[in-house]
Amino acid sequence: MSEQGGRQGGAGAPIDPRQWEASRSAPATEDTRARYTEGEEVPDNIREQTREGEDPYQWHSGRTREHGSTDAVEFIDVKKSFGRNTILNGLNLGLPDNQISMILGPSGTGKSVCIKHMVGLLYPDEGDVLVHGESVPNMADDELFEMRKKFGVLFQDGALFGSMNVFDNTAFPLRQHTEKGEEEIAEIVNRRLQEVGLTSARDKMPNELSGGMRKRAGFARALVLDPDIVLFDEPDSGLDPVRTALLCELIQEVHAENGGAYCVITHDIMSARRVADYIAILWKGRIVESGPASELFNSDNQFVRQFLSGEAQGPLGME
Ligand SMILES: Nc1ncnc2c1ncn2[C@@H]1O[C@H](COP(=O)(O)OP(=O)(O)OP(=O)(O)O)[C@@H](O)[C@H]1O
Ligand SMILES: [Mg+2]
Question: Is the CB of 92 under 6 A from ligand 1?
Answer without folding.
Answer: no
